């Protein structure tokens, strides 16, 4: 099977976790930011999380370096373009990239500038490479909630022209959803789709809450419905697609190994599963690698994979014309 040639959809990719190490060096030098080294291999090692982290917290520490250079309009536009370019070159047909605008205000950028710059980079990649894309605006669960509506208001100007959805991300605590009920409702009223990180770190109840309290249409990761029957039943009944990220889940100890990842058992049971990168740089991966790992680990046929591709297209936050276009590759 030619894994590179397979059409691919990536619904769960973080902008700040997918920056080219070479770009970090160039941007840091241009911005007067001192780096530990000018050696790209050293910088790459600082950006890639260990294959087995102690926990999610250790994994998330790898975002500090890229975020330090992602505080200007030019940097955001360039990085967005490059992430979409890298995906397009491995035959990713459509990609949703997520990022938290409030992590890019350190040097005074407005939310309009931040969102507009990332949209511009994505749009340039669409023009140059033919890839289709949308953006997901993430809110970090550990940050104060006082500016969430401001982010949603700024993003609403780009709904339908680059921005598609609202997300909650960051460290996962049991019961986090209740606090965000009014904000998810506000986002839906504005016209945002909703996808929520939940069930990544052992808390299946959070998946149940994300769907029942926040009306999540998709769930980021969601793998721990495997140990929570009510959440599992709800996902199945409501046909809520799970954005699984196999390599990342192994790294963060969400699962012990790829062999024990529930993606294939879910697929066989009719749970809508998708395969995604999570963070191309931090997890040292690509969509080609993720697809190949899952196909080889679980002995999937090309027909099996194309079923996952179609699930991804049907779960994508796109209009009917784009959906039909993406399904044409299946």
Assign an overall shape.
globular
Specify the CATH class. Answer: Alpha Beta
How far apart the termini lie comes to: 15 Å
Mean pLDDT: 96
**CATH architecture classification:** Alpha-Beta Barrel
Give the class from helix and strand content and strand pairing: alpha/beta
CATH topology: TIM Barrel
β-strand number: 8
Main beta sheet strand tally, sense and closure: 8 strands, parallel
If strands are numbered along the chain, what order do they take across the biggest sheet? 1-2-3-4-5-6-7-8
Radius of gyration: 18 Å
Number of self-contained structural domains? 1
- List SSEs in N-to-C order: EHHHHHEHEHEHEHEHEHHEHHH
**β-sheet strand percentage:** 5-15%
Helix content range: 40-55%
Q: Count of DSSP helices?
A: 15
* The CATH homology group name: Metal-dependent hydrolases
Q: Can you tell me the residue ranges where pLDDT is under 50 for at least 5 consecutive residues? A: none
Cofactor: Zn(2+)
Organism: Vibrio gelatinilyticus
EC number: 3.5.4.4
Domain Adenosine deaminase: 7-328
Short structural description:
By secondary structure, the chain is of the alpha/beta class. It has one domain: TIM Barrel (Alpha-Beta Barrel), CATH 3.20.20.
């Amino acid at each position: 099977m030619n894994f590179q040639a397979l059409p691919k959809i990536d619904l769960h990719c973080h902008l700040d976790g997918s920056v080219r190490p070479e770009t970090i060096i160039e941007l840091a030098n241009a911005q007067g930011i001192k780096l530990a080294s000018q050696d790209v291999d050293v910088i790459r090692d600082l950006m890639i999380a260990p294959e087995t982290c102690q926990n999610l917290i250790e994994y998330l520490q790898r975002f500090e370096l890229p975020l330090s250079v992602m505080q200007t309009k030019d940097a955001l536009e360039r990085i967005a373009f490059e992430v979409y370019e890298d995906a397009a070159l491995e035959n990713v047909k459509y990609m949703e990239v997520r990022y938290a605008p409030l992590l890019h205000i350190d040097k005074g950028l407005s939310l309009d500038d931040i969102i507009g710059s990332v949209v511009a980079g994505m749009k340039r990649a669409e023009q140059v490479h033919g890839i289709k894309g949308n953006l997901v605006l993430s809110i970090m669960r550990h940050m104060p909630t006082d500016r969430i509506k401001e982010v949603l208001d700024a993003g609403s100007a780009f709904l339908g022209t680059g921005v598609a959805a609202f997300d909650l991300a960051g460290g996962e605590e049991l019961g986090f959803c209740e606090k965000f009920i009014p904000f998810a409702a506000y986002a839906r009223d504005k016209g945002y789709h909703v996808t929520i990180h939940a069930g990544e770190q052992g808390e299946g109840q959070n998946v149940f809450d994300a769907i029942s309290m926040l009306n999540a249409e998709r769930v980021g990761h969601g793998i721990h419905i495997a140990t929570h029957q009510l959440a599992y039943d709800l996902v199945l009944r409501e046909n809520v697609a799970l954005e699984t990220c196999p390599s990342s889940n192994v790294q963060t100890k969400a699962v012990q190994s790829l062999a024990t990842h529930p993606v294939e058992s879910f697929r066989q049971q009719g749970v809508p599963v998708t395969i995604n990168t999570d963070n191309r740089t931090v997890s040292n991966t690509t969509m080609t690698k993720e697809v190949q790992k899952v196909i080889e680990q679980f002995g999937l046929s090309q027909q099996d994979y194309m079923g996952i591709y179609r699930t991804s297209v049907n779960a994508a936050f796109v209009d009917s014309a784009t959906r039909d276009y993406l399904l044409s590759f299946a």
